[in-house]
């Protein structure tokens, strides 16, 4: 039985994550992959290498993705999740093939990408990587963000499905080294091709190396409905309309 958008929202709020199957049809997934592969062959990505593994700001670099990603199904779900105007704040394409394999330890996503550096109260831990500024905003901003991971391949435990600690997003900044495994549980979020995983940035998550040789391609999108403290602005702000 398909979950209603309201039930999906309740699961996300309660547990910090939710898996939703069949957001995209097989044809729609093929169209997304075709957009990425066509752009990749044109060598427009500074980060590409022998084995492409990440494209940051992918929605800006491949604008044709917008029409194939933002279907009525996805827009309807996002409207229920936010109940107000929302916008895109970050977009990354990940490819986790057996040739470019890595392990990611438990962590929270505490940094956002902004247009420039500025001395603003409660915006801390500034970084400058890959030509863009990152900063840790107030917790209220992080709590508002919803991450949408669009899976372009079947994702199982054996090819890097995310592991999460349910309800860890309710504990504020929660350092991985302080996890009490006597009280916490771990859940592996397997997602079928064409499905999505929703997650709150404060949810502790990790992923293992691929062991079955299968590819794991994911579009990682972050959305918010909150503006940042002036003069800061979201680096990839796109209201999608």
Q: What is the total domain count?
A: 1
Structural class: alpha+beta
Within CATH, the superfamily carries the name q2cbj1_9rhob like domain
- Give the CATH topology: Jelly Rolls
Element order, helices and strands? Answer: HEHEHHHEEEEEHEEEEEE
Q: What's the architecture, going by CATH?
A: Sandwich
Instruction: Give the beta-strand count.
Output: 13
Shape: globular
What is the number of helices? 6
Radius of gyration over alpha carbons? 17 Å
In round numbers, the mean pLDDT is 92
Span between N and C termini? 31 Å
CATH uppermost class: Mainly Beta
Sheet with most strands: 6 strands, antiparallel
> Which parts are unreliable, with pLDDT below 50 for 5 consecutive residues or more?
none
Roughly what percent helix? 10-25%
Biggest sheet strand order reads: 1-11-8-13-3-2
In percent, how much strand structure appears in the residues? 25-35%
